[in-house]
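Readers outside the structure-tokenisation community will struggle with the description of the input data as it stands. What matters is that the chain and its backbone geometry are given together, residue for residue. For illustration, here is how one protein appears when written out as sequence plus structure tokens:

…
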Amino acid sequence: MPDLDFMFHPKSIAVVGASPQPYAPSNVHFFYPLLMYGYPGKLYPVHPKADQVHGLKTYRSILEIPGPIDYVISAIPARQVPQLVRDCIAAKVKAVTVFTSGFSEVGTREGVRLEKEIVGIARQGGIRLVGPNCLGLHCPKAGLSLDPGIAKLSGNVGFLAQSGGNAREIVVAAAERGIFISKGVSFGNAADLNESDFLEYLTSDADTEIIAAYIEGTKEPARFARVLRAAARAKPVIMLKGGVTKAGTGVVASHTGALAGRREVWDTLCRQTGVVRVHHFDDLIDTLAAFVYLKPPQGRRVGIIGVGGGASVLAADECENAGLEVPVLPDRIRRELLEYTPSVGVGLRNPLDLDTDGFMNPELAARTVRIISEWKGVDFLVLAILPGILLAHAHFKVLGGHVKALARVVRDMEKPLVVVLRTGGVSKSEEAAQAMQADCQKAGFPVYRSVDSAARAVVRLISYHETRRS
């Protein structure tokens, strides 16, 4: 297993192709993010003609930089990359990310030849390559980020992704849900370091407790299967496989030059190795939220508390369709609830329909959650709220009151709680949900936009732990 820790903690970085043109891709994707995210090491822009880039002295080539260089980001045309790698060997560079496309993914003889050439040069000189055709590394502790707009926080999720766009979206979408990354990589064509190398690294990484993966294909199928099995034994691995249809497979070949493989093969591989398989990008983030926030429920019985009779019917259907059980509330619990809940508009079943008046009282809603949680007939709870309805009758303080009341109740609960903020795509509801979501996540429980997405994510968490216990 290669030791890749040095790559994620470089003390100096050179961006080759950094440009005086402010919107050049090299600046947008690499140079500015390093500055904005507060990279603490030495940062060297390299450009053949410019004197300065964003106020920093610019060097004509790698060989002119006076100090040691740990990591180089290449954003120059593909035909120039072989000479750059030779210069990196002379400068004793340790690792190079090749952002440039125009290699094997374009499917031309010249592209394939260039890719083989840079790999041969790098291996002869002891340099490790990430890419080509990728965005490279993400490590908040070291000041590396694929998107400088997110908080500079390090979490417990590591990721590997062949796609640069998907890698960045993982970082941004996860941060929106209060999920932060330990280390991550967009590795593109995987000409040198591939998915097995990075998966092995994240498996052994002490900062990473959960691994997320977007995989289009694999360079070493037998090795990848072994590495994947070892990774899934050590920590949860959640995988989104791209290129499972005829159309998707064709796109994969032109995207990263990978061989996608048949859907059935990947389904079997994930099942045999214990990998949590998801099928959509939103499912990946939803499932991460369940694994990050929730202790695993002891079973599949769910207690649902929500607004509206019709919504309750749909919630029950969605939970059962996902593989959960929706048990009937016993008379004892119903009698206890009647002591606190409004007498009109309340359906004392499961799902429990607290009407609008009931939800206008945060303490009452929280107390209802506590009563249901103490019933031995459920293993976890889902609380579904319509923020737009609350705002129509009150104001943002009611939303904040819900979070505070729930946080007090959840501290003493043994069972997990999931919050669903249903907005229906209405802008005012979405505004309220965004404000409430941040508070919920700070309080320690995950937020979803539908009961269906919450149910499917929690089922994956439960199934994973059921498999581990068997």
